[in-house]
Amino acid sequence: MRVYKVKSPIDNNILYEMYDPDMMEIRRLYERAKSSFEIIRNLSIDERLRECRKIQNYVAENREWIIDRIVIENGKSRFDCLSNEIFVVLDAIEYYKKNAARILADKNVSTPLTLRGKKSKIIYEPIGVVLVLSPWNYPLYQSIVPILSAFIAGNSVIYKPSEITPLHGMIEEIIIKSGFMEEAIQVVYGGPDTGEKLIEAKPEKIFFIGGVKTGKKIMALAARQLIPVVLELGGKDSMIVFDDADLEKTAIGALWGALTNAGQACISVERIYAQENIYDHFVKTLAEKIVLLKQAHDKDNNIEMEYIDIGSMTAERQVDIVDQHVKDAINKGARVLIGGKKGSHPFHYPATLIADVNHTMKVMTEETFGPVLAVMKFATEEEAVRLANDSPYGLGASVWSKDKMRADRVARKIAAGNVCINNVMLTVANPALPFGGVKYSGFGRYKGEYGLYAFTNVKSIVIDKMNSKIEGHWFPYTPNKYKAFSDLIDALYSKSKSFLKFIWAGLKLESIAKKERLK
Ligand code: NAD
Prior knowledge:
Elements: E1 3-7, E2 14-19, H1 23-40, H2 45-61, H3 63-74, H4 78-104, E3 107-109, E4 119-126, E5 129-133, H5 141-152, E6 156-160, H6 170-178, E7 185-187, H7 192-200, E8 205-209, H8 212-224, E9 229-232, E10 237-241, H9 247-259, E11 269-275, H10 276-290, H11 316-331, E12 335-338, E13 352-355, H12 362-365, E14 372-378, H13 381-389, E15 393-394, E16 396-400, H14 404-413, E17 418-421, E18 438-439, E19 442-443, H15 448-453, E20 456-463, H16 479-493, H17 499-515
Parallel strand pairs: 5-6, 5-8, 6-7, 8-9, 10-11, 10-16, 11-14, 13-14, 16-17
Antiparallel strand pairs: 1-2, 3-4, 4-20, 9-19, 12-13, 15-18
Bound molecules: nicotinamide-adenine-dinucleotide.
Nicotinamide-adenine-dinucleotide binds at residues 133-137, 142, 160, 162-163, 191-192, 195-196, 209-211, 214, 217-218, 232-235, 266, 367, 369, 395, 437.
């Protein structure tokens, strides 16, 4: 049995240990989840939303305690936690409180005249037990939002947090103390082995947030039992800065986009492309401002945790990746303006600005996931788009320009699931917008309307009258029916199409079907 030592990135102390559960325990969890599904599916959407409101109230009222827990285990700054864990969770619940009933209501859709007399509708049914596998970078947001989305759609949930930030007992405490329907969510702790066992136990759907390598494994495991998956994977987001952008605002936006959460966001700014005639000025502005940021390393200088801009990194393995990428860039000729060197603390990496990078360097091609701004020059709009799309990833991007037409044109040409114009990472801040990627950033969407449909069986229903009418396309197939059906196609779609001819052909087909029926 594997032991996981959960460390605090703040002081590198071991907080507690965890073990992988065995298959018996996992099967018991599934039994519980299956029974609770039978209850949840029969609740009205209003009843489910009432449960979510309890979590919303509890998180809002107890946020300082929740922030304490997250900061100790994840290392992020309190402000990052307040805005990008607490606020976004509350906001997502608020959106669903106002919109879920409409989104999940049965929808009547049009029925063509060729299906005269019928009605058509779409209904959204729960699917069963949903498995949510989460990463360590936003341990509250990346768990609560998919869990509650699945629940609102009528499912029960088995949730496994990352072994790096399990926040042991925290989600359970929120559930129990808020008075939320306890049996709806089963929390299970453990690492990759536990994740694999949870898949083997066959959930009805897997919602995975994590790295590309793991995403591929999950998909292969799920394929064995044909379990549908949503994969929310990594990114290498580009930021394109045109020469007419407000460089002051753009630089401050770039610093936040690249350094919030110590750069450990899937939609962090990872590649900056600045137009050649403003490149030097833009890099200088970034350099002047990056030194004003207060980082966790400065804690010894009596800076209150609340006012630290950049916290610790969360995983030692990630610090090593960042270090490797920066060293690789330096070896290939990049210019380090600020930072660029790992200190002695295993979870710290200084905010780093490097210029004159190119696409031979890992820092421009692989997910760095750390506090690094890497800036490269481009000449034309076409070149900027080509560079932005020269990546295996396609999660997010941003375009900065006063020219609205150009910004819109470029936003459309970038292969990504999210693009911001003159701002950064904001698509994730609007709970009405779907979130997800293309290429190696995964597929499927969550948040907004799609975020509920992702957890439903979208079922189509056609309703006909119970009368004696026999359809023109049913057996027996006869020469007369063939001719009448051909006439109908001509009436609808040939160059000489005509509504009158269509009515005539339709009535004729109906009358033949009545006469030439199976007797
Ligand atoms: P990870 O892939 O290592 O782990 C994610 C989760 O999967 C963890 O709970 C882990 O225990 C579990 N897991 C690992 N191996 C498994 C296996 N073989 N079978 C089943 N489960 C397994 O990811 P991470 O390092 O925790 O997170 C960082 C990555 O997540 C980054 O690449 C980041 O970009 C990505 N991410 C993506 C989004 C998004 O919405 N697209 C959001 C946040 C993070």
